[in-house]
Amino acid sequence: MQSVIVHYQEIALKGRNRPWFVERLVSNIRAVTADLGVVKVRALMGRIELQHVSNDDWPEVHNRLARLPGIANFSRAVRTRCDIDAIADTMLGELRDVQVESFRVTAKRADKRFPMTSPQIERELGGRIKSVRGWRVDLEHPELTVRVEILNDEAFCYLRKEPGAGGLPSGVSGRVACLMSGGIDSPVAAYRMIKRGCRVRLIHFHSYPILSHTSQDKVAELAELLTRRQLETRLYMVAFGDIQRKVVLTVPPPLRVVVYRRLMLRIAERIGRASGATALVTGEAVGQVASQTLDNMAVIDSVTSIPVLRPLVGMDKEEIVREARQLGTYEVSIVPDEDCCTLFTPKHPATRAKAYQVEAAEAGLGIDALVEEAATTAERRDLRFPAAVAPQEARSGTAG
Q1: Which domains does the chain have, with CATH numbers?
Q2: So what's the pLDDT on residue 1?
């Protein structure tokens, strides 16, 4: 029977909590393959099996599993009886159309009751393959590695390992709220938190109708791409243009960027708490732009009572771009747009803003009212993957 065997790595180190992590990964695999020809997903001894993956469905199953956090690697395999003759026959059947010059056999014996040790299994199967196919055994640099895994009542044979995303299954580490600009950095920051097992809410601040709708369209597309990784995404669109106009009227130009960021964090915290988030996430890196200095970050973070996480804080731009390309968000992020960060931005923002100066500049803004209005009027969109599971209709409000 055709199967896919999924291996995990970091989950195996979780001790007593491992069954809960494994069950979450099993649940995520079921969800991501819900519209494909997967008959059953079940946890086995240190691995997960997807049963009955057809040739037609395999390419899409491959693509989805490769994106799913928590998976170290996976392989298309054939399940057979836990018997050396049955295993050999199955392997030779799989190798019927394969043409190589060298090979080796690698065996893992999860069930120690099997009468042969792993080296004995490798020698026995290797000898049979060499006898039938005439290939040369090469233990150091084989052209093909034939793998077998022995479990309690069954064995699996496969020829290739496909790399997974690694990390932890989405949903095991709580919720965070990520500020999404539509640029290159924030989608990478969001994905890094998804890969650490967080369910990431996305919050985008826009200046429509003062500026065009492009930044919202970009963020919606980026959210779709991230949803392919975490399966469920809640996206909030926050109107920020009117708030920026009020800041321009009362705040000195050098301090405006810091005030913008402090207002964004306040609004994001308000929205995040209402949706169960226990931390905020940004795509900032130290010194990347003039406003992203340690002094400014300290002044900006002081307005929140929950942690502000910056997964990219020590990275340079080339490293972030490389990750964005691997993630598949780069081409969307570089589409020209007009976001709120380009509106009313001073030519020379303060790089070492003082808390007392910023607080004095904010005194006439009516912060609480601005935050409340922006949070309660934010547009909410719920996205799901795969598309066969219809996403909920977009709606306003921050509840849930």
Answers
A1: 2-163 (3.30.2130.30), 175-396 (3.40.50.620)
A2: 64
